[in-house]
Amino acid sequence: MNAIVQTAYGSSDVMEYREVNKPTPGDGQVLVRVMASSLAAGEYFGMRGKPLPIRFYMGLLKPKPGFVVGISFAGVVDSVGGGVTEFRPGDEVYGECHGSCAEFAVADVGPIAPKPRNLTFEQAAAVPTSACTALQALRDHGKVRPGHKVLINGASGGVGTFAVQIAKALGAEVTGVCSTGNVEMVRSLGADHVIDYTKEDFTKGSARYDVILD
Ligand SMILES: NC(=O)c1ccc[n+]([C@@H]2O[C@H](COP(=O)([O-])OP(=O)(O)OC[C@H]3O[C@@H](n4cnc5c(N)ncnc54)[C@H](OP(=O)(O)O)[C@@H]3O)[C@@H](O)[C@H]2O)c1
Questions:
Q1: How far is the CA of 158 from the centre of ligand 1 (A)?
Q2: pLDDT at position 82
């Protein structure tokens, strides 16, 4: 099968489209035919190998041999490993794994779920890492409740666009912070107030917030 393999740390030139062995699912895993995969800030850090702690996972001087890029994906279950009862071949799923930028990827059943029917594969692949980061931050750590005033710094980014929508769904009054060109987009996601960071520094304002996602 073909995959995007990272051979060194540096610019996007370190990515190579090449043939690798098709993985085999172990117990508690599924083999997924990847239909779409998305990249987030983590892949950018991984590409550069900075900050350095990321190399404990990827490899100290260069990525481990055959390191396939990508975490978030959406696809179709091709086969299942031992003990898997939650999914079967043909199921449309999305979630996280190691090495999603490939024709096939092996995923543990824990971090995957049935793909919502109203999402395309491309839309679904954009959700897992960024949306879960926003969900964990607001629901689990911030404990956002109805009526809370929540500020999302970086509201137009991968995490922020989900965070604005999740905070609204949790019943918060949401303020998004982004640059001029993204003000209307953040408003369209449901933000009650939008601060353009090129014109205003929210840390110097008088407004107070119950939760700030930075
Ligand atoms: N994406 C993930 O899955 C994920 C997971 C875990 C942790 N993180 C961390 O979360 C952070 C954001 O990641 P991301 O993927 O959302 O990045 P991103 O898509 O690049 O978004 C960056 C955001 O920061 C905003 N921004 C840039 N300069 C700013 C400034 N001076 N003041 C306020 N906002 C500013 C950008 O606004 P404009 O574009 O409007 O300028 C944009 O909304 C990163 O530190 C990343 O490491 C991300």
A1: 7
A2: 97
Amino acid letter, 63: P
Our mutation pick for probing the ligand 1 site, out of 43, 136, 153, 178, counting the most ligand atoms within 8 A of Cβ, is 178
Alpha helices in the chain (DSSP H): 41-48, 54-58, 121-125, 128-135, 158-169, 183-188
Ligand 1 pocket, residue 133 CB under 6 Å: yes
pLDDT at 190: 98
What does the block give as tokens for 188?
């369209």
Number of residues that this document lists for the chain: 214
Cα 98 to averaged position of ligand 1 atoms, centre (Å): 22
Q: Count the Cβ atoms, other than its own, within 10 Å of residue 209.
A: 16
Element (H, E) at 99: none
Complete domains list, the chain, with CATH: 2-125 (3.90.180.10), 129-213 (3.40.50.720)
Q: What is the pLDDT of residues 101-156, one digit of tens each?
A: 999 999 999 999 999 999 999 999 999 999 999 999 999 999 999 999 999 999 99
Q: Would you state the structure tokens that stand for residue 41, as one six-digit string?
A: 């800030």
Task: List, for the chain, all residue ranges whose pLDDT scores fall below the cut of 50.
Answer: none
Q: What is the pLDDT of residue 214?
A: 96
Q: Which residue, among 20, 10, 12, has the nearest Cα to 102 in the 3D structure?
A: 20
Of 156, 180, 200, the residue with max ligand 1 atoms within 8 A of its CB, to mutate for a pocket test, comes to: 156
